[in-house]
């Protein structure tokens, strides 16, 4: 589920390349050898030359080679200012080429060495995106989704005033919705096969743990459906009451209402189940 490319190629370059354009201008007609040229041993070149060559490779669309070249600056001149810039740019270049492990590793090194630097939020954002851009469809393993959620939360909590916090919040919510969708898929599978208790357990997870996602209205409706199938009418009434309070204008509520009234029932807080506590919190505002 790759929602967008690593945002701000131009922004990233401006952030970490501040002085490189001035240096390029001073270089005049000097020709920088390309990475891999047999005519120049990379060990004999200055960090500026290697860095500018990596920048050129990136601008030409050779992101993988650019990442490797930025890595050479770090390897050969680890204590230079150029190495600091190259470390972050290698993370950016590797992400552009889809080498997420390498990208994450470079960004993590940057945070290890420069945790309080002005570009630390950007490095954290790259780490988060290295997981987020690998989120797969809900039918497969969701390890990357969980990792993305954790890393996006770190950005929101550690760098709330950064330019990346808003994007991290949006992606956090999308990833959360993705996990809720996984629970719904499994719940619908159980429901279609008459395994109502197993289905209820999945829909309950959505209502209790992912209640801010777009999956919640359907989860409440499916609870009505499942409880009615088990003959647990009070639980079905309570689920419908919660659904009606929060999502009355949805087709899910219309369907739930039709199910209940078709059996002579109406949405209401009835019985004594886990849903009653949810009703008190959501509808009545009683959190104690």
TrEMBL record:
Subcellular location as annotated: Cell outer membrane
One Pfam family, short name: YfiO
GO biological process: Gram-negative-bacterium-type cell outer membrane assembly; protein insertion into membrane
GO CC terms of this entry: cell outer membrane
InterPro entries: BamD, BamD-like, TPR-like_helical_dom_sf
Keyword Lipoprotein: yes
PROSITE patterns registered for this protein in UniProt: PROKAR_LIPOPROTEIN
Entry keyword set: Cell outer membrane, Lipoprotein, Membrane, Palmitate, Signal
Lineage: Bacteria, Pseudomonadati, Pseudomonadota, Alphaproteobacteria, Rhodobacterales
Protein name per its UniProtKB record: Outer membrane protein assembly factor BamD
NCBIfam families assigned to the protein according to its UniProt record, in alphabetical order: OM_YfiO
Subunit (UniProt): Part of the Bam complex.
Bilayer disposition of the protein: Lipid-anchor
Domain Outer membrane lipoprotein BamD-like: 46-240
Superkingdom classification of source: Bacteria
Principal subcellular localization: membrane
Biological role: Part of the outer membrane protein assembly complex, which is involved in assembly and insertion of beta-barrel proteins into the outer membrane.
Keyword flag Transit peptide: no
Family: Belongs to the BamD family.
